[in-house]
Write a structure and sequence with these properties.
InterPro entries: Impact, Impact_N, Impact_N_sf, Ribosomal_Su5_D2-typ_SF, UPF0029_Impact_CS. With 163 residues, the protein is an alpha+beta fold. The chain contains 4 helices and 8 strands; from the N terminus they run βββββααββαβα. Strands 1, 2, 3, 4, 5, 6, 7 and 8 form an 8-stranded antiparallel sheet that branches. Helix 3 packs across helix 4. The longest helix has 16 residues.
Length: 163
């Protein structure tokens, strides 16, 4: 397994800024993750279409769109609750999320969409769309493919400053 820096970490497709991971290569299979900020769940199809139209390499992939998204309304709690002051360790405002909407798609790679969705849930991220593309290299990778999908997904979130 190796990481290859073939692209910039930030690209714009159809006026949307996508934060990209490096390309991860394992036994000739290639994986690359991308993420962007999402305004509403109804924007997902348009964003995916713009991504594929803006990058023909993605359209030619064996699994072009493995993705997950979450949207919600972020509400910050005030510093004081019920008239009680928080301790020094609790001085940062807390954020709650309500009206969460989420979804995922495997893109022909069974179970892969759920891997990305659980990644967003674990990091408590909302209003984000994460997409992983896989170019199959001819050799089955077994469960390692899920590690690679997660790895490039996390890297794209880091490149976007979301984790």
């Amino acid at each position: 397994m190796r990481l290859v820096a073939m692209f910039a970490t930030k690209r714009t497709y159809s006026s949307t800024v996508w934060h990209e991971s490096e390309v991860l290569i394992d036994r000739r299979s290639k994986f690359q993750g991308r993420c962007c900020i999402l305004q509403s769940a109804s924007d997902v199809p348009e964003l995916l279409e713009g991504l594929v139209d803006g990058n023909k390499r993605i359209a030619k992939a064996s699994h072009p769109l493995i993705y997950a998204w979450r949207t919600g309304e972020v509400i910050e709690e005030p510093f004081e609750k019920n008239g009680k002051k928080r301790s020094a360790a609790q001085q940062h405002p807390r954020a709650r999320v309500r009206n969460v909407s989420q979804g995922s798609a495997d893109g022909g790679e069974a179970g892969a969409g759920n891997v990305l969705l659980s990644l967003l849930e674990r990091n408590q991220l909302v209003n984000v769309l994460i997409v992983v593309t896989r170019w199959y290299g001819g050799t089955p990778l077994g469960p390692a493919r899920f590690r690679h999908i997660s790895t490039v997904g996390v890297q794209s979130l880091r490149n976007g400053g979301l984790t």
